[in-house]
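Example S7 (structure tokens).
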């Protein structure tokens, strides 16, 4: 069927005007957000709050929203790019069709929590510590008392923000209901173009496929840890693991991969690596912020400021395996952003879906556990290869299993949180941790503990965590497909392989958001995001 030129021209005029109106506001919002995250200053957070409010108020135009709805229901609009452009513009506007006072209130609540979290520094025995220092204790100390103090310090922020998060959840739900959605969680999934029933069916399938091998992995890990700490396996507590949430696997299999990264300039070798993969990132390096400082956001992220090449990465680097993987992950996001076609309309110059951006990031972030990659990247001597090879393979499998089961905790927790904000969230949290991670809750946590509220993604990146797991699945599907398309021999050594970078640019990156999540995944791999490739790669040997 041919489109109606008059209708399509009218829609294009509307969308072009909207992009021209929104472009400076989007850039201003991104720049002020970046500055607030880097500085942590109250003034910068206030400015970021003001620019976000301004952007959201501009997106609240009910007249434009209704006009977009009308055109999308018009059979005369047949142009694929035009329909996708209108769809994404409408999605962006949908949650903002609220009174000014509601938008202002939501933004203020979010920024208040964000400011508290980014400026907060916990204490251990009266001494202020950073998240890196807590991580170092949990990774290296055999002093069980100190480990417990460090773990508890990582939870100190919870009671300070828990009430604010509950109120934010209630406020988000009220806003979502005013727009015709059951709650904020289901609204967010719908606006991410994700069907809730299909998502949780896939999560259930993954849980079933991974359950038995994960139990075997976890039992072996706990035995090793019990021997290491000279305790019984039944006495393993959350602070015996090396991550406060057990979202990362402990380095307990004898793979001393830290020696590979110590003393090396992470930024230097990361830049060289992406250049060798045909995805140079050199041009954006001077825009990033890479080392710890007071008030700065304590974790890591990548931000596409203008969807035209101004991409920035924030890190808090140390020369270790964790930050090596994190740097590869964040610059994996950047590689995607930098290679989206600039011929697309501005609104389409974004990733196909958050899960696809995560897939790109995870594809590269996985490399630090890939023995063949480490050999090629760093020229490891034979003695180190013999020492690392077998334990690193097992550690990599366990690491991916631990991360993926953690994603199940977060996804189920958030759905429950928005369905019933008044429920005992601490109980919900530990019920899910025990169910999916097989980590026993401490029996003596104080009544004031709000361990769930210490995972700040719940407040600042709501209804997001399923995208990490979908991203892992897609990364595995992409790896299988590129190996087939490029006739790569196993094991694939993803080093100095510009053909892989070109494949990613051609199949994924250049299309921006022209296709939705399921369309693009199916076009590349023949199916929608599924867990089977991921399970095959990381669970079948256990």
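Recovered sequence:
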């Amino acid at each position: 069927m041919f489109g109606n030129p008059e209708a399509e021209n009218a829609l294009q005029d509307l969308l072009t005007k909207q992009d021209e109106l929104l472009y400076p506001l989007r850039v201003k919002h991104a720049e002020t957000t970046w500055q607030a995250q880097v500085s942590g200053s109250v003034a910068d957070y206030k400015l970021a709050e003001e620019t976000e409010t301004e952007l959201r108020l501009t997106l609240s135009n009910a007249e434009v929203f209704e006009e977009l709805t009308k055109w999308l229901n018009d059979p005369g609009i047949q142009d694929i790019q035009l329909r996708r452009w209108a769809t994404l513009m409408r999605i962006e506007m949908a949650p903002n069709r609220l009174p000014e006072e509601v938008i202002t209130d939501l933004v203020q609540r979010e920024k208040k929590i964000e400011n508290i979290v980014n400026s907060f520094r916990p204490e251990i025995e009266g001494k202020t510590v950073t998240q890196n220092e807590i991580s170092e204790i949990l990774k290296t100390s055999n002093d069980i008392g100190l480990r417990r103090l460090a773990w508890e310090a990582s939870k100190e922020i919870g009671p300070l923000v828990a009430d604010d998060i509950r109120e934010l959840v209630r406020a988000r739900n009220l806003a979502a209901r005013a727009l015709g959605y059951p709650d904020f969680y289901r609204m967010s999934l719908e606006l991410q173009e994700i069907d809730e029933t299909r998502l949780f069916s896939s999560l259930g399938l993954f849980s079933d496929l991974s359950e038995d091998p994960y139990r075997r992995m976890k039992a072996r890990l706990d035995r090793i840890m019990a021997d290491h700490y000279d305790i019984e396996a039944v006495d393993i507590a959350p602070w015996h693991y090396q991550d406060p949430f057990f979202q990362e696997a402990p380095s307990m299999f004898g793979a001393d991969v830290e020696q590979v990264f110590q003393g090396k300039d992470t930024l230097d070798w990361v830049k060289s690596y992406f250049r060798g993969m045909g995805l140079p990132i050199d041009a954006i390096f001077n825009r990033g912020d890479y080392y710890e400082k007071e008030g700065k956001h304590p974790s890591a992220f990548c931000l596409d400021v203008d969807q035209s090449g101004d991409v920035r990465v924030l890190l808090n680097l140390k020369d270790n395996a964790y930050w090596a993987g994190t740097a590869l992950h964040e610059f994996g996001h950047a590689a995607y952003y930098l290679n989206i076609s600039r011929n697309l309309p501005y609104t389409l110059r974004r990733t196909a879906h958050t899960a696809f951006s995560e897939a790109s990031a995870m594809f590269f972030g996985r490399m630090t556990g890939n023995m063949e990659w480490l050999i090629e990247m760093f020229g490891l001597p034979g003695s180190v290869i013999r020492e690392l090879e077998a334990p690193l393979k097992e550690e990599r499998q366990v690491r991916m299993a631990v991360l993926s089961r953690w994603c199940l905790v977060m996804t189920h927790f958030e759905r429950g949180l928005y369905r019933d904000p008044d429920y005992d969230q601490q109980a919900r949290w530990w019920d899910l941790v025990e169910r999916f991670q097989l980590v026993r809750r401490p029996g003596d946590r104080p009544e004031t503990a709000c361990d769930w509220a210490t995972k700040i993604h719940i407040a600042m990146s709501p209804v997001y965590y399923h995208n990490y797991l979908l991203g892992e699945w897609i990364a595995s599907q992409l790896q299988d497909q590129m190996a087939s398309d490029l006739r790569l021999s196993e094991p694939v050594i993803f080093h100095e392989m510009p053909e892989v970078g070109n494949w990613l640019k051609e199949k994924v990156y250049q299309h921006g958001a022209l296709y939705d999540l399921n369309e693009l995944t199916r076009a590349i791999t023949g199916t929608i995001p599924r867990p089977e490739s991921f399970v095959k790669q990381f669970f079948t040997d256990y």
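Notes on this example. The chain has a mean pLDDT of 95.
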